[in-house]
Amino acid sequence: MSERSELTVQRSAANRRFRRSALLGTVVATALGGGAILAACGTGGQDGAGDPGPAKLSVADPYIPLPPAGGMGAGYLTVRNDGGPDQLVKVTSPAAGSVTIHRSTASTMEQVDSLAVPAHGALQLARGGTHLMIMGWQKAPALGDELELDLTFAKSGTISVKVPIKELTYRPGQS
Ligand SMILES: [Cu+2]
Fold first, then answer.
1. Which of 107, 111, 113, 154 has the greatest CB tally within 10 Å of its CB?
2. Cα of 73 to ligand 1 centre, how many Å?
3. What is the pLDDT at residue 175?
């Protein structure tokens, strides 16, 4: 009846979806995170106690599972960093009214102001973990569409990415 109750219904539907995928998401995130740590060790830097230098960021594997009609979308991606530390501080989209940074907890999710991008590592936004919450779509998203997301970092400025809308069950690495 009210906008508020409609939003609550959408929220709980999204929560159920996140809970269902939380277990697999955690496994994937752990595996990928381990890889990132190994990679970071491999790039050395043990001799340098000095300045880690500027961050060198790139965005990999962005996707949005097709949201329910008119509902909230979740955005996932990886920010790779071949330089010093940085922070993701804001995300906007020219085609969506609201993009917020969320962290899933055991039973729900909460908004966070920023996420650290570790030096010579990666920030993973993955199922069951941190993600982007996209609301206020100007046009109802459909499979194959792309949504521009503008990621603003504390040191590196803004990186714009075109994020494809994928099937609900999509995982990076699938075609
Ligand atoms: Cu969320």
1. 154
2. 8
3. 58
* Residues written for the chain: 175
Q: Residue 131 pairs with which residues in a beta bridge?
A: 102
- Please give the distance, rounded to the nearest whole angstrom, from the Cα atom of residue 86 to the centre of ligand 1: 22
Cα distance between residue 144 and residue 147, in whole Å: 10
DSSP string, 101-121: EEEE-SS-EEEES-EEE-TTE
Which secondary-structure segment (H or E) carries 30?
Answer: helix 3-42
Residue at 88: amino acid letter? L
- Cβ neighbour number for residue 22 with a 10 Å cutoff: 17
What is the reported pLDDT for 49?
Answer: 56
Residue 171 half-sphere exposure toward CB, CA atoms < 13 A: 11
Helix (H) or strand (E) run with residue 90 in it: strand 86-92
Segments in the chain below pLDDT 70: 1-49, 174-175
Q: Please, are residues 123 and 78 in contact by the beta-carbon 8 Å criterion?
A: yes
109 beta partners:
104
Q: For ligand 1, an ion, list residues with CB under 5 A.
A: 102, 109, 133
**pLDDT tens-place string over residues 108-132:** 999 999 999 999 999 999 999 999 9
